[in-house]
Amino acid sequence: MCSRRAGRGNPRPARRRLYREVTALRAADLRAAFACHHEAQAYWDAFSPGKRRDYMEWCWKRSARRRA
Questions:
Q1: How many domains does the chain have?
Q2: How does 19-52 read in b/e, with b if 16+ C-beta sit within 10 Å?
Q3: pLDDT of 12-22, one tens digit each?
Q4: In contact, 3 and 9? CB cutoff 8 Å
Q5: Which Pfam families does this entry report, sorted A to Z (predicted)?
């Protein structure tokens, strides 16, 4: 706010990413990332809700032990 009063404008100008900046390589990387995500989601959905809950609890306990 001080910079606006001094007439210097916004200290952090907005950074906009335009669609045209996305190259074919980056678009291919995004496609690969989404494909991996969907494969992982299908694997995760194969578990029953009880197994999911047990696995999440195990992860939480493991992370708590690491922090301690």
A1: 1
A2: eeeeeeeeeeeeeeeeeeeeeeeeeeeeeeeeee
A3: 655 555 555 55
A4: yes
A5: OmdA
